[in-house]
């Protein structure tokens, strides 16, 4: 897997950034010793990478996240430790940015250093089945808002078009034209088409850079369910 | 069938309100419902509607009063402490017989509490959303699709009976994502000419929207008339869902996220051979009393699964006339009962009366 030192995932609210960031960090860890994931989400109160913290640490991935995430403290804070992703050149960093331009604002303070080091990828996560980004034009608008808010241009696209549990082969295939249109309108490559693992074999030859992912960011009762079975 | 989209509960609810004809949203931000306001702020200007972030919850609910008085569909949303601030305005809406939809995406309390999910505003919503003798229609969704359907239904019932309705959601329902269809059919148009203050064109007498009555006899008359309407609602508008109740010996009663957890627990208990089912109230007011009372003649025990310290349990005991024991299975403060918690309660209920 080719990768830059820093990989940043941003996109529309609810496009699936956190889950992709967690998957990507786990993949990186197979090749690199030091992998950090930074949760810059200052918008979302629930369903965050913090939910996967224990699992990530077990896999040797350090999570940098607000100590208030998933607590009752409603403070949009990012820890000072987040600067490690810039300062520590020995580590591979994955940055999970909050949704939309509001979320991307928090990325802005790291952008000058990211640009200066110039060893990064900035990936736009898109999902055609989100009602405010159903087509190329609406998605481009969100994309421009994010770029303006953080001061950095995207370098690639992740097509994560899905309908949650109801996603099947057709769901993904019906999003190919949408992703291609965004790609040709922006000149950005489709770096991944993310699909759940059980669809990978069916889709690997049909979509651009098909990438299998697991669902790590879950509804709380679904997670409990799993814990119960593991006992 | 309409195409499905993947939506967060709060967004789905906001879009459903727009599709139900709501063009007036007034609110004030509070976690975990801010997505509703954020969504409305984006969408309303594109469709000729009004989004206004008021200076306070109190201002927002009184803006709802104004919009509703003209016969327009208006909505506000908040979370627990914010709803408490709106309670005076909610009472005024009820006292003036105005339809409106109020959304409560509940968080932990009392006081400032916390931002994690809760159901501890059950009493507030069903018994005491403000001062005076009145009820709200209270709808409790248990999926993102129901957030959509019940928003649509809430506007309809509010206009049909000229009273405020509340969608009682919780943080988890608001934040979770599921595929939904936004196809909800036609909007029923109700005749508002008898009450809406929207200009007479000098062609008819003024409609006056008011909750102040100088003459106590007149005030009493309105109160009695309102309760006749409530009686009709209790007779005709109760909604609930039954799950594996056919041969059930234990009946779980749960709404919203608690019902989602309970459903998993019921499936597990059934695998162990325990006959357990669920009656899930969809309307918390009117409460599904009749079906629970009938169930009390068949089952040996009830379990109220709540994210509160035992609130709905009182309505279950009343509805069943305490014919059978009602156990409480609960977590509070932003915690959700686990499947295992519910399974433990099912085991306890199963041993009631030594009948194993």
Describe the model.
The complex is a heterodimer of chains A (231) and B (356). Chain A has helices at 17-29, 53-58, 84-87, 100-104, 111-117, 136-150, 169-173, 176-186, 197-203, 220-230; strands spanning 6-11, 35-39, 61-64, 92-96, 120-126, 156-159, 190-196, 210-213. Chain A contains ten helices and eight strands. In chain A, β7, α9 and β8 form a beta-alpha-beta unit. By secondary structure, chain A is of the alpha/beta class. Residues 224-231 of chain A have low confidence and may be disordered. In chain A, α6 (136-150) packs across α8. Chain A has a single domain, classed as Rossmann fold (3-Layer(aba) Sandwich), CATH 3.40.50.300. Chain B has a seven-stranded mixed beta sheet, with helices on both faces. Chain B has a five-stranded mixed beta sheet with strand order 9-11-10-13-14, sandwiched between helices. By secondary structure, chain B is α/β, with parallel strands linked by helices. Chain B has helices spanning 9-19, 34-43, 57-69, 80-95, 122-126, 144-161, 171-175, 216-236, 256-271, 289-295, 312-319, 339-350; strands at residues 4-8, 24-27, 50-53, 74-78, 100-106, 137-139, 164-170, 177-181, 240-243, 250-253, 276-281, 283-285, 301-306, 326-330. The N and C termini of chain B lie far apart (47 Å). The longest helix of chain B is centred in the middle third of the chain and has 21 residues, at 216-236. Chain B has two domains: 4-236, Thiamin diphosphate (ThDP)-binding fold, Pyr/PP domains (Rossmann fold, 3-Layer(aba) Sandwich); 241-354, Rossmann fold, CATH 3.40.50. Chain B has twelve helices and 14 strands. Helices cover 40% and strands 19% of the residues of chain B. The A-B interface holds A 13-14, 44-47, 70-72, 74, 102, 127, 129-132, 134, 162-166, 219-221, 224-225, 227-228 and B 4-8, 11, 15, 31-32, 35, 38, 42, 108, 113-117, 171-172, 175-179, 182, 257, 260-261, 264, 268, 334, 336, 338-340.
